[in-house]
User: Fold this.
Amino acid sequence: MKYKHLILKMVPAMRDEDYLFRIYHFILAKYRKEGHKAEHEEMEQRKAEVVRIVSELENLDIIESVYSFIMGMLSVKKGGAK
Assistant:
């Protein structure tokens, strides 16, 4: 956290626009990468939870309904009927 406080002090004190421009683009790329990584981890957790729930299901009607729903979502994503 020490670095975070130092950066927050340094950036407002900078006068060179070129440095600020470079810093902005550097931090933007890092920020987007971190956000993408967090989204990926959340998606993997959701996948694991769905797999766990489906593996515990015993009712065939529910399993068939889930299967039909997933197939419908995949066909929409590929450009099928909406």
The CA atoms of residues 3 and 9 lie 10 Å apart.
